[in-house]
Specification:
alpha/beta; five-stranded parallel β-sheet; 35% helix; globular
């Protein structure tokens, strides 16, 4: 299974630790490949790498190329889980929704 995270969800108001927690539990518990969907790979890579954000992210992909479950800010593709941020208050809910979508 592939989890595609829209690059906007790496930026504030997302909490970096919550982003890292979500990628960790999806990677370890659901055995997902996690990719960041972005047009500017270098910008996001250079921001994520020194902070440990690439520990559970496998790659970057251009928008619309990869098939999988999307974590996005708006409904662009199906299946998508829509959120405006990744924070401690919604990390468990996002994980549960990703886990459910993986069973479909």
């Amino acid at each position: 299974m592939i989890l595609i995270i829209k690059d906007e969800l790496v930026n504030p108001p997302t909490w970096f630790t919550s982003f890292r927690d979500l990628t960790l539990i999806c990677s370890m518990r659901l055995h997902t490949d996690i990719v960041i969907e972005s047009e500017d790979f270098d910008l996001y890579y250079n921001w994520l790498k020194p902070r440990g954000g690439m520990d559970f992210v496998d790659d970057f992909v251009p928008p619309g190329i990869e098939e999988g479950i999307r974590l996005d800010t708006e409904l662009n593709y199906d299946p998508s889980i829509i959120t405006d941020r990744i924070v401690p208050e919604n990390t468990h809910q996002l994980y549960s929704r990703i886990q459910f979508a993986a069973t479909l």
